[in-house]
Protein: C2H2-type domain-containing protein
Organism: Streptomyces canarius
Amino acid sequence: MPVLMITVEPARAMRVEFAKWAVRQTPKVRTCSPSAFAVPPGLFTHMPEALLIGSTVDGHPYRSPEEDAALAAASQWRTAVPGEPLPEVPDAAYAPDAVQLPGPEHRPAPAEAAPSEGDGAAITCDVCSRPFTTARGRDTHRRQAHPEAD
């Protein structure tokens, strides 16, 4: 069973401090590239957060739990409650370059279907004469029911 490791690439200013911390661990935390370390998951949860600030963890920027809590507290979003209408989304939530899609009254009419498709026109299988309403349905049937005919 492979041992899972968390790849941590510390911020440039913290690499020396991170390396000092890494070699003090038992077993030592190894490097996995010139600028990244392979940290066991059990050790990752106990490492000093100061070493993680500004680092990349498994390819993602590190965000501290305190930062996430502060963002959640500052958020103006409300949680939906079952049975109640969803809260309104403020216009500020949308990017300034968001494009408004046209309403149904401004959408172009759908293209007319080909006479052989839709309108109940029967398209028949040339092997067993079974009727189909679309050429796609007939082609699927032919591939599955009559593979020898291909």
User: Anything to note?
Assistant: The two ends are 47 Å apart (CA to CA).
